[in-house]
Sequence to fold (813 residues):
Amino acid sequence: MLITTQWISASSLNGQNLEAVKVSLSLNNETLVHAFQKIEKQTSFRFMYRKEDVRHIRSVSHSGASVSLDQLLGAILIPNGLTYKQVGQRIMIMPGTAVPEVRSSAFPEPPVVLPPLKGRVTDEKGEGLPGVSILLKGTQQGTTTDGEGNFTLDVPNENAVLVFSFVGYVSQETVVGSRTYLEISLKVDEKSLEELVVVGYGTQKKSDLTGAVIRLNGDTFKNQSITQVTDMLAGSVAGFYANQSPSAAGGASMEIRGPSSLSAGTSPMIVLDGVVYNGSIRDINPSDIETIDILKDASSAAVFGAKAAAGVIIITTLRGKTGKPTIQFSTKLGVAEVTRKKFGSYDGQGYLDYRRDMYRFMRGPLPDYYYFSPDELPAGVTLEQWRAASANPHEDNTTEWLNRLNFFPIEQENYKAGRSMNWMDEVITPGLRQDYDLSVGGGTENLKYYWSVGYTNNEGIIKGDQFGTIRSRLNVDFKVADWLNVGMNTQFADRDESVVQGNLSTMYMASPFGSMWNDDGSVRWYPGDYIGVVNPLMDYYGRDRLRKIQSIFSALFAEFRLPLGITHRVSYQPRYEVMKDYNYWSPQTVTGGQTYPDGRATREDYSQFGWMLDNLMKWNKQVGVHGFDVTLLHNLEHTRTWTSTSTNITFRPSPVLGFSGMQFGTNPTVSSNDTEVSGDALMARLNYSLLGRYLLTASVRRDGYSAFGQKNPRAVFPALALAWNLGEENFFDVSWISQFKIRASWGVNGNRDIGMYSALAQLGSNLHYNGTNLQVGLFNNSLANSNLRWERTESVNLGFDVDLFNNRFNLTA
Fold:
């Protein structure tokens, strides 16, 4: 594991001579890491090392006398079996003693038969890497790259293998072959970096976390067929409960550690790219996701206050990286189908057996063989006995038997004609799934961009179930000056949810000896002539629906770097959504042909505009062994919706126009519903670290929301968490345990998902006729409750995190 803060610091390629740099510091049985930190404060040098090389060194001492940095490093490193290498202003710590410039006679240099090999080693950005170790595999012959990443090396033959290694990067082996110049690009070793986890309004090193936070990486799901974000979470996170949907749209219900309310909503809050997201999770393209962090305890979620009682899911999307544009295209094609049809509807013989056994159970005084087929009578029962069981049997034995089973005329007709149908094969059909994603990302040091567009068109396993969407995202980061960064994260989605699917309930009950169609080709409402079981595909063939939702969500931000290490980020997040939901039940359906003769149609138009404004101030400072991370937030939000609904029935002279001809109905109705809500919040949080071992997180948030009563519009949500990095203590020296942390947290979260007008008296309307005119009457739907207060959920969390065998195994409990 690597300490990452040293990697990102800028330094000169031509560093100072360590013999000329004087330091004066006192070390009294301190860890080697703390010694490095003290040296960094007195000099411009930065140390790079692997944690496993230095974590066991816990007793370093020095008198405090002024000495050269070269002398000091020799005094504290050599006795501990370490050495160092200077590369510019960076000092790399390595195990072993210093490698002499002259090769040992034990490893004679092989004879050179090729011209000197030249080359350059770069990082992922294409910048030269100084100090990269290059060894001829199987020997001690080698060299290092210069300040620009260039190198020259003698190689014995074309089969020579070179090993390129650098702290924090993945080692790479290359066969020289006939080449005389090599371009090598090393990749960052992600496992060696201290993993950063996204928490509320910021990030933290995993080792510094005091709460229960779980991370998922988007790359894990790149090769899976995923329609929604919830498909990524189901079955992937301990304590996350989801009931996955088999529909074309996918998705699932979401709960973190179970329900946290009796009557209010229990779905977790969604935070997208650092801001609260109130839109549909269906509009987030899984292909755009870089990481998902789930805040499971009250302490980590408390900074979000409102709605945080059900937990928080933080989604971070992909962003552009410095370098040439990178174009990526992926497509996924597949078929969705049920794995087993064993529990489907009855086939012909199964239905006959079911009816026989059901009536046998209910037979009363009738003999058991009364409901058996005359062709399959029990042993010892004659046909004459079977016929005699009925007072007036039909002359045709088959007709008599079907009458005893209460078969309707259409069922008898189809049975005698040898016709039957499997309703499951009619309603449950394979569905084609299509997904296409295109993205472009890149940028310079001052401008980075990421743009994507994705198209999904899925069919479900139930006939008529479909889901289509086009989703696009644009993330832009622009460095205006050293003290100012601006950017935006914008997302657009166009969903088609015009679903009219078969009815599974009636599929299981429909008789296989019924008929799908009438003689004139129209849909048969009751396939088996029994009015209690309608045709499972009646609406599929006879109903027309249009349901389209378009939404756009954006986060526009500006970040200012202020004196004293303070940053101020202003973020404005508008969200706009429109929906059309139009339905028409033709006379071919029971609804439009019997309940409402000559058709029924509805049109609902909905639009919503909401915005949030965040003012976020952060201050991060290391003072000796004390680390401070302070976050302050002021939030405002406002949301308005407009809904208009119209209905009509009995379309004459013709219902052919459906919901496009609402004016041709005989009984029009219209209604509207407009809403408006607002909220505000203040939040403060302190993350404190002592010696990197003892961690404290304390936060308090005060939320206001217009849905609550006038006497209690606001509530306060405090939280406190403590953690102890036991693995960093001097007395803890277990080589196979890389990290051992114990933590405890307490917090109070709120839930505002109670309905936006729950505290107010609400009215309903009723039409009545007074003998002359049509009048509108009003009545109370609900009474006012000015004392309605916030629902608060208190939570205590105890846990520990252990990394074993050089981070190969991780345990969180």
